[in-house]
Design a protein that fits this description.
Structural class: alpha/beta
Number of strands: 10
Strand order of the largest sheet: 2-1-5-7-8-9
Shape: elongated
Number of domains: 2
Low-confidence stretches: 24-51, 92-128, 316-359
CATH architecture of the largest domain: 3-Layer(aba) Sandwich
Order of helices and strands: HHEHEEEHEEHEEEHHE
CATH class of the largest domain: Alpha Beta
CATH topology of the largest domain: Rossmann fold
CATH superfamily of the largest domain: Peptidase S8/S53 domain
Largest sheet: 6 strands, parallel
Number of helices: 7
Helix content: 25-40%
Mean pLDDT: 68
Length: 363
C-alpha cells in the first residue's frame, strides 16, 4: 500500500507542475480575466497565454478529463505490476527477528546466513576492533582463578580499557597423593584444541611435569606456534631442572628474577612484580601472558618472533639478572635474539610418555 501511495504522489506532482503552475502564472499575467489557455507540455512554465472563448474552455475541460483517464489507466497498470512483483519476491522481512526477540534462539529463517569466523593465521590476526583472547590451562579451579586474577590486575594496571577475554580450561584427571594430577595425553591435546578453536592468541600454563612428553604434545605445541598462538608457561619452582613443556620448543618459559626457587627460563619477571601473598612462578607466567595480550591488542599483526622480542625488551627496566644458563631465550647482555622454541631443540625431552598419563602439578 505504501508503494502505491508513493507512485500516486509522484504522478500528482507531475500533474501540478504541468497544469496548475502554468495556470497560476497565467492569472498573474491577466489579472482582469484569469481564464487562459495552456497547451500541456512537460515542465513548469507559462507558454503563450491568450484570451479564451467558450470553445477554448470546453477544450480545456476535455483535455483535463482525458488526462485524468490516462492517469487512472496508468495507476491501474502500476497496481498490476506491483502485484506481479510481490508474487515473485515475497517479503522476507516477515522472517527477520523483531526488536525484543532473543536473536540467539536458533538460526534465522529465510535467506539469511550466520557469518562464519575467519580462519586465524599467524600473519593475519583479528582486527584492532576485536578482543584478544587468553586461555588458561590448569588442573585446579582455585589455582586457575588466582592465575586469572593476577592476569586481570596486570591488564587493568597497564590499560584499564583493554578488550581482553580470558577463559579457563581445567584438565580432567585423578589427584595423586603427592599433589599431582594424572592427566591423559589426549586431555592435554583436547585443551590445546579448545583454546585454538576459541580463538586464543595466548595460552597460559602455570602447571608442569617432569615426566617428559610424547610426540603428540610436541606436535600440538608446534601447531599452536605455526597458528600464531603464544604458549606462556611457568618455569617451575625446583630451582634447577627443566620441566617438560616449559623447557621445550614452541614455549616461552617464565621464571622469577631473584627467587632462589625459580627454574631457569626464557624470560624473567622481577620478584617485586608478583602480587603480595602469592609465591611461585605460577604467578609470573600470567604477567607475561597479560603483557603479550596487550601488545597484540595494540598491534594484532605482530608475528610471534616480534612479540617475543618486544616482551624481551621489558627486562631492560630492571637490574642485571643473576647468572643463568643461556636457554636460547633473552639474556640481558643480548646474546640471544629469540626464545628457545624458535631455534634450539630440546634433546633432554624424552618421548616415552606417548599414550600414557602424565602427572602435571601446580607451580
Amino acid at each position: 500500500m505504501n508503494k502505491r501511495l508513493v507512485i500516486l504522489g509522484i504522478v500528482l506532482i507531475i500533474f501540478l507542475f504541468n497544469f496548475l503552475v502554468p495556470i497560476k502564472n497565467s492569472f498573474a499575467y491577466f489579472p482582469k480575466n484569469p481564464f487562459v489557455y495552456y497547451n500541456l507540455l512537460p515542465g513548469p512554465g507559462f507558454i503563450s497565454p491568450k484570451m479564451i472563448n467558450e470553445a477554448m474552455l470546453e477544450k480545456i475541460f476535455r483535455e483535463m478529463i482525458a488526462l485524468l483517464i490516462e492517469i487512472k489507466s496508468l495507476l491501474k497498470e502500476i497496481e498490476n505490476n506491483l502485484g506481479k512483483i510481490e508474487k515473485n519476491f515475497p517479503d522476507d522481512n516477515k522472517n527477520i527477528p523483531r526488536e525484543g526477540k532473543d536473536l540467539t534462539e536458533g538460526p534465522r529463517q529465510g535467506n539469511f546466513e550466520q557469518p562464519s569466523s575467519p580462519k586465524q593465521e599467524q600473519s593475519q590476526p583479528s582486527t584492532s576492533n576485536s578482543s584478544i583472547k587468553i586461555a588458561i590451562i590448569d588442573i585446579d579451579p582455585e589455582h586457575a582463578e588466582e592465575v586469572k586474577r593476577v592476569m586481570e590486575e596486570r591488564i587493568r594496571r597497564e590499560n584499564p580499557n583493554a578488550n581482553v577475554e580470558i577463559r579457563t580450561i581445567i584438565l580432567p584427571g585423578e589427584w595423586q597423593a603427592d599433589g599431582s594430577k594424572a592427566v591423559a595425553t589426549s586431555a592435554i591435546l583436547d585443551a590445546f584444541a579448545q583454546a585454538k578453536a576459541w580463538g586464543a592468541r595466548v595460552i597460559n600454563m602455570s602447571i608442569g611435569s617432569t615426566d617428559g612428553i610424547g610426540g603428540p604434545i610436541l606436535n600440538a605445541l608446534r601447531d599452536l606456534y605455526e597458528s600464531g598462538i603464544l604458549v606462556v608457561a611457568a618455569s617451575g619452582n625446583e630451582g634447577s631442572y627443566d620441566a617438560w613443556a616449559e623447557a621445550g620448543r614452541y614455549v616461552l618459559s617464565v621464571g622469577i628474577r631473584g627467587a632462589p626457587y625459580s627454574n631457569t627460563a626464557d624470560l624473567y619477571v622481577d620478584w617485586g612484580e608478583i602480587p603480595e601473598g602469592l609465591e611461585g612462578t605460577s604467578f609470573a607466567a600470567p604477567i607475561i601472558a597479560a603483557e603479550a595480550a596487550l601488545a597484540l591488542l595494540e598491534n594484532p599483526s605482530l608475528t610471534l618472533a616480534d612479540l617475543v622480542s618486544r616482551l624481551n625488551s621489558r627486562e631492560s627496566m630492571y637490574a642485571e639478572i643473576p647468572s643463568q644458563r643461556n636457554y636460547g631465550g633473552r639474556v640481558f647482555q643480548g646474546k640471544s635474539s629469540g626464545f628457545r622454541g624458535f631455534s634450539i631443540s630440546s634433546p633432554e625431552l624424552s618421548f616415552y610418555g606417548q599414550g600414557f598419563p602424565i602427572f602435571p602439578f601446580l607451580w
